[in-house]
From TrEMBL:
<protein>
    <submittedName>
        <fullName>NAD-dependent dehydratase</fullName>
    </submittedName>
</protein>
<feature type="domain" description="PRISE-like Rossmann-fold">
    <location>
        <begin position="85"/>
        <end position="267"/>
    </location>
</feature>
<dbReference type="Pfam" id="PF22917">
    <property type="entry name" value="PRISE"/>
</dbReference>
<dbReference type="InterPro" id="IPR055222">
    <property type="entry name" value="PRISE-like_Rossmann-fold"/>
</dbReference>
<dbReference type="InterPro" id="IPR036291">
    <property type="entry name" value="NAD(P)-bd_dom_sf"/>
</dbReference>
C-alpha cells in the first residue's frame, strides 16, 4: 500500500464505535472496499457489515473468512471490572481477530488504537507511581503495572512477526467524535448533561478536579485519528511505529466550560473546592431523558446509550497533567490538526442534525 496505489480492502474492528465510525466514513470516501466488524453488525453507509463477537474465535473465523483485507484497524475494547480481566479479554480480542485473518494471508498493515493509559497506567493504578513527565513522548518505557494496552501491543507484535505485515499503534487522548452506545464519548455525555440541566433548571456544574479546571489539556478529534490511521497504513514512515495523536493545540476547561454552557443556554459553575462527579449527580435521570427524547422526537431514548458518566468523570477528574507530544508524527510527515474548541461544537452540531440531542 502506497499513497499512489488504488485503495484496497479494509477491515475496521469496532466499526460502530466513536473511532470506528469516523474511520469507516473516511475509508469509504477514499475508495476503499470497507468491512465493518461489530457485535451488532449495525449497517453503515457504504460499509459491508460483519457481525461477530471478538471473544468467539470460531465465529470470527467464519465471519471473516471471505473478507481478505489489506488494511486492518482495531479500534474496539471492552471494559472489565479489573485490569487482569481487561488484559485477558482485550488481549484475546486482538489475538482472535488476527488469527481469523491469517489463512487468507492478505493483511499488509494493522493499526491498533490505544491511549494515554499507556503512560498513566490502568484505571486501578491511574496516575500513580513513576509517571513520565509531560508532554508524553512515544519513547517512554512501559510502566511497571499490568496494562491491557501492553497486552494488545504484544499480540499485535507477535502476529506481525509471524505473518510479515507492518503495524502502527495510535495513542489517543480523550476522543471528541460522533457515536451512540459508546463507552468513551465526552461530547455527547456533556451535551446530554447540559440538556438535562436546562430541563431541570440546574446549573451546569464542572464535575472534575481543580487541576483539570485550571490546567492545560489536549484532546483527540476522531476524524483526525482516522486520518492518521489511514496515513500510517499507506506511508512508509508510518510502518512499525507507535504514534501519539492529539489535535495539536491545548486549552483550559475553565475557558471552554462557559462556552458550552452558553451554547446550551444554561448557567454554569466551575470547580468549587472538590469534584462533583456526574455519576452521582445524574443518578435517576433515565426518565428525564426519556421525556426529553419523547418531546423532541429524538432517536435514542435510552440515556445509558447516550451518556458515559463514569468515563467523563475519569477524564475530568484527573489529578495529573496529561499533555501529548506530537513531534514524532509531524517529523514522519503527518501534519493534520484540529482546533479543539471547534471540534467540540462541530460534533454537537452533528448530534443535533442526527436528532440525538435537541
Amino acid at each position: 500500500m502506497t499513497p499512489s496505489s488504488t485503495p484496497g480492502r479494509a477491515l475496521v474492528v469496532g466499526a460502530t464505535g466513536i473511532i470506528g465510525q469516523a474511520l469507516s466514513t473516511q475509508l469509504v470516501a477514499g475508495g476503499w472496499t470497507t468491512f465493518g466488524l461489530s457485535r451488532s453488525g449495525r449497517p453503515q453507509p457504504g460499509v459491508t457489515s460483519v457481525a461477530a463477537d471478538l471473544a468467539d474465535p470460531e465465529a470470527l473465523q467464519a465471519a471473516l473468512a471471505d473478507v481478505a483485507p489489506q488494511l486492518v484497524a482495531i479500534t474496539a475494547w471492552t471494559r472489565q471490572d479489573t485490569e487482569e480481566e481487561n488484559i485477558a479479554v482485550n488481549g484475546a480480542a486482538v489475538r482472535n481477530v488476527l488469527a481469523a485473518l491469517e489463512p487468507a494471508r492478505s493483511v499488509q498493515h494493522v493499526a491498533l488504537v490505544t491511549g494515554l493509559k499507556h503512560y498513566l497506567g490502568p484505571f486501578e493504578a491511574y496516575g500513580s507511581g513513576d509517571v513520565p513527565d509531560t508532554p508524553f513522548r512515544e519513547e517512554e518505557p512501559r510502566l511497571d503495572y499490568p496494562n491491557f494496552y501492553y497486552a494488545q501491543e504484544d499480540e499485535l507484535f507477535a502476529s506481525a512477526e509471524r505473518n510479515a505485515f507492518t503495524w502502527s499503534v495510535h495513542r489517543a487522548h480523550t476522543v471528541f467524535g460522533f457515536a451512540t452506545g459508546n463507552a468513551m464519548n465526552m461530547v455527547l455525555t456533556l451535551s446530554a448533561y447540559a440538556t438535562i440541566c436546562r430541563r431541570l433548571g440546574r446549573p451546569f456544574v464542572f464535575p472534575g478536579s481543580e487541576l483539570q479546571w485550571n490546567g492545560l489539556t489536549d484532546v483527540t478529534d476522531a476524524d483526525l485519528l482516522a486520518e492518521q490511521i489511514i496515513w500510517a497504513g499507506t506511508h512508509e514512515a508510518g510502518r512499525d511505529q507507535a504514534f501519539n495523536i492529539a489535535n495539536g493545540d491545548v486549552f483550559r476547561w475553565r475557558a471552554l466550560w462557559p462556552r458550552v454552557a452558553e451554547h446550551f443556554g444554561v448557567p454554569w459553575e466551575g470547580f468549587e473546592g472538590e469534584p462533583r462527579p456526574l455519576e452521582q449527580s445524574m443518578v435517576g435521570m433515565a426518565d428525564t431523558w426519556r421525556d426529553i427524547a419523547s418531546e423532541h422526537d429524538l432517536v435514542e431514548p435510552d440515556l445509558s446509550r447516550i451518556a458515559s458518566w463514569w468515563h467523563t468523570d475519569s477524564d475530568l477528574g484527573r489529578t495529573v497533567e496529561s499533555l501529548t507530544d506530537m513531534n514524532k508524527s509531524r517529523r514522519a510527515g503527518f501534519l493534520g490538526f484540529r482546533d479543539s474548541r471547534e471540534s467540540f461544537f462541530d460534533h454537537v452540531r452533528k448530534y443535533r442534525e442526527a436528532h440525538i440531542i435537541p
